[in-house]
UniProtKB/TrEMBL annotation:
A single GO BP: cell wall organization
Signal peptide: none
Name of encoding gene: murI
Family from the record: Belongs to the aspartate/glutamate racemases family.
One GO MF term attached to the UniProt entry: glutamate racemase activity
EC number: 5.1.1.3
Protein name: Glutamate racemase
Enzyme class, UniProt record, top EC level: isomerase
Reaction it catalyzes: L-glutamate = D-glutamate
DNA-binding recorded as keyword: no
Pfam family for this entry, one: Asp_Glu_race
Active-site residues, as the UniProt record annotates them: C70 (proton donor/acceptor), C180 (proton donor/acceptor)
Binding annotation for substrate: D7, S8, Y39, G40, N71, T72, T181, H182
Amino acid sequence: MKIGVFDSGVGGLSVLKSLYEARLFDEIIYYGDTARVPYGVKDKDTIIKFCLEALDFFEQFQIDMLIIACNTASAYALDALRAKAHFPVYGVIDAGVEATIKALHDKNKEILVIATKATIKSEEYQKRLLSQGYTNINALATGLFVPMVEEGIFEGDFLQSAMEYYFKNITTPDALILACTHFPLLGRSLSKYFGDKTKLIHSGDAIVEFLKERENIDLKNHKAKLHFYASSDVKSLKNTAKIWLNL
């Protein structure tokens, strides 16, 4: 099976890493819209337009499935993509919510959603968790984390200062939903900041489990063949992928 993975930039490589290591697919086409990152500060119509243009890009590869490895795109463009695509299209929000439900059986536990401004504004995580009976949900836009990851800043004083700025009035949550695919790269620092009590919900791991439950996919005895494309500076994207995926 050949699939596509789309993200606004390099953050979706965290999802690609999980998919690659799970050995579910034969071939994976990754496309990052690096010329127009970040999506998290753009309006709904612009996000949908960019995502439909990405869908047109994937048509040339005759993929069997498309994974939207961007929470902002999943929040705003999933319906438009599904209406136009000739193959299944999955976003990461449903998977993230399901992973949270599995991790937290007590619906009074405290959940913190961190994401881009646009994803938080969509309230997609909050609405879905509330509909499942969860009562203690906080949501926080932490947009500065995106350019930090794009610049390769995963730890250190600069990140520590940003975490202290964002989380100064936040009590330690029982679950932290990393509702931007850039954020798993900050997982070690976030875990250190909040401590072992907090469970981190990772979009990549969540979508792997989500697909296993919904698609009839046989485990492969080989890792997928990878192809990387970008709307700008594909060389930089490939170099980042080599580091993140240990290629």
